[in-house]
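Notes to self after the call with IL:
- keep both proteins in one doc
- input above output, always
- annotate only the second one for now

Protein 1:
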Amino acid sequence: MSRDIERLLAAAADDTDQPLSTDVDDLLVRARRSVRKTRIATVSTAVLTTGVIIAGVATWSANRNESTGPADGPKVTMDAKTGRIVSDEAGAQVQPPPPVSQLSDDNLRNQCKQADQEYVDFLREHGANAFDKGQPLDARWKVVVKAGTGNRVQAMFLSPDQSIVSTCTLMSVGQAQSYERVSTKAEATSGRTPTSAPALRVPDGVREVLVDLDGEAQPRQALLGENGYYSLGFDDSRTSGRLRQVRGYDAEGRKIFEYTRPPLPTAATERPVPDSVTVKTAEPVTPNVVLTKDPLTGNALAPPPPVSPLTDEQITTRCRGVDDIYFSGSSKVQDPRIKAAGPVTKDWQVALKTGTGNKLTAVLISPDKKVYAWCHMLAPTAKGAYDYTRSAVQANGKFADDFSFGMVPDGVAQLVVDLPRQGPTRALISNGYYIWGLTGGNSDIQNVRIRGYDAQGKQVYTAKKDVDADFD
């Protein structure tokens, strides 16, 4: 998966430093900036690559609390020939809307099918999509808006029963930068406050839409499609989290709708980690006996994944490319330590690296020992499939438990991961971290047993852990 793919994953591209759980709210904020390699064997991965950034559950209903302006409300200035908004009611110049995509509806549906399937599968595995009946994206889904040029397009699809709207942002042919499904039913939130509904749809009667974003002085005019859905185009997946205000105008340019983002929670509500805390890894233990057979069954263990042949400097150089994208698309307020660590440079420690050829999964540790970057790339540059995130150290000196890698427990010399398909597998251990394969995409999260053995081959550790069990 990659929504960034946020994810999706886009937005929604920031991790927190808390353990992954199956709580819907906790799960869905754990988005990664990522682009996922497809597993359709009949199609070249150079042509069809998909990405999903899990963005979150949002709803829309006719009974929202956003304000509706009076019929004689303030007006925008419009171009008489094109109908485009030239300036808003305050006189600010308006950025033009994205063009309607020239790609056909069938073409867009076909390009977004793989991302849709991975999104549905991921949420189903975690029990986080009770509102979504999992209807596959097919010809029955209506394209309500499609905005962009060439192969850089954002398309929105409405399900046959109108219960789900999905958003697919394509960065190239078949390659989704982000993907999400959200409910159109208020009851889907089960009492939760919908947070991003105005980023999808405006009420009936609105004919023009302006969107104000954090960090931009000029409002943007959106492309308004059918059923009140609108888009800012390909760029929307990187800006939706910065949405500050949405304004809607009638056919005569009068403002009849306005939404303003509620104040964000203050840092005072969070328990800060002391600035003196740095990551503490287990002391290395050299095995006297290397396990080749499973101590429980006597059967052969699958070998550990290989150490990547790339040099540390090659890895930091490559990962810097996706690190830059991660920060350029970041929208959620982050732990300040994540940004304070600065960009990835050759001074970052490559603590763990696995892969063959150009395929790579690596864990990088910041010079201040407070932040890790998890970097998964299937090509030499960010133009290929990748998955990426950062997170900061917790108060106990550990990084949050992650389904892509782990931290070696104290006193453990070897680890066995009971993978569901390839069976018990020796983990690759490096600098106090371990990994069980070329993790990335995270489309198949499984809860498995991890077993740890001391230098003499005696079991001294056992625990269950969520792992990415479907390797790229």
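Protein 2 (the one to annotate):
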Amino acid sequence: MRQLLFWCFLFLSGAACAQIPSQSPAGHDPGPAVTVEVSRMHCLVRFVETLAGSSGGYIGSRKAFEKSRFNTPAAKRWLRRYRNLDREPGFDREGYPVGRLGSQGSTAPAYMAASADAQSLTDLQRRTAGLLTNEVLVSLDSVYRFFTPAFDTLAWQPHAAELGRQRTAYAEFLAKSQLMQKFGQLRTFYGGVWPDDIPYRIQLNPQLDGNQSVGGLTFTNHAWVSGNIVLLDCHPTSRNFVDGTGVVFHEMSHSLSAQQRLGLQQQLEGWYLHHSSPDRRSAYNLMEEALATVAGQWIYAQQKGQPESGEWYNDDYINRYAKAIYPLMTGYVERGQTIDSLFVSQAIDLFDRTFPHAASEYVNLFRKVLYWGSDDAMQDAALAFRDQFRSNYTRTVTPILASAKGLEAAQSGEYLAVIFVTRDHAATLRYLRQNLPALRKQRLRPEQSFVLSTTGPAGPLILVNTHNPTQVSAAAKLLAQQGQIDPKRPLQVLK
């Protein structure tokens, strides 16, 4: 989604919040409750998380810190220590489709909620006792105390007052616009279980880079959802609330997807994967972001009369897929219908028409990747491919020989299997040919360095057979230049 204007709000020494009252007409569902909050402890926790390179952190704030006097060798050591802590232990939810947001849980939502309520670092420890081990809690406390001077100087003291003025304004905007009532319609479409009395807590964090767009308006596209906590990184001087709603409600829609009824999640997977389209799995893998993008744009259109005219998402496939299914999904939303098998069938048909080469284009195939290698050195090999191809999900498995886990994943069809053979070439290639039908029609010479891109019964597969590390990077660049699988020239020799 293009960069959007965002917002910021109130300041007290601890946490401050504005409860948004229901103003829905009689007989209308007001939708879930929502509060807008600012908490010093929460901002400190997010500040450290962002500096450590968390996928949920705003990169502009991290870059601003790196340019500051606080970016010392000691700070780098503390951040390495933080990254190595077991601070977000996770678990699998039995019965949920693998890969859906609802299939995995972690302690992160509870920890973020505790940080929003905590009045001090000592209070944060008390609120999270039992959630994480005491060893981790003590280490986290030490990290937070080390970075507190940098946080106060760069983030809190310059921006807290402005956050205070903006929090109330944003709460009033949400109440008057009745967007949570509209969000209730999205809840019906998703079939998400989200009681009205469980509030979404929008937590405001200051962005530090201060970039501005034309006309002096400051834009951002950064929000994140963790349970019922909406993590919103915002420029303290932002004012254009309407333009910013698309991103926040996009992220909140992900929470509806995660809380979708278990039976409906299982049905959805079946409707997609039992469809006759050869690209059904690609359509399924893109479903999450495409639906959330439409949801954000529909909320925007409720205020502006139509969705944005430019790019909706900074990914060509998701951008085009969301635009293709926008009339379909918004029709369901406005009629009060829940997603069903007819919706899925029509969405897959739209995907097929929009992306006729999806089965062979690397930009699509690399979204969900299995990197399977001969030894631990394949981590560097996988990095060479990550530099060339964007992935939403990656799985790494070693070794190749006698690895039931790797073979099962490669045979499943759930991933683009990218296999690196860097030693024991003859035995490994023989083993792969025996177990992967896609390779049996190819003549594979162990002494030769090559990259093979082909498709078999389980789907697309890439085999990289190399004798020195530099050839892996060469293979990745070659495929990036090629752009898609070429059935007329599947195997290419590497120099």
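Annotation: The two ends are 40 Å apart (CA to CA). The longest strand covers residues 200-206.
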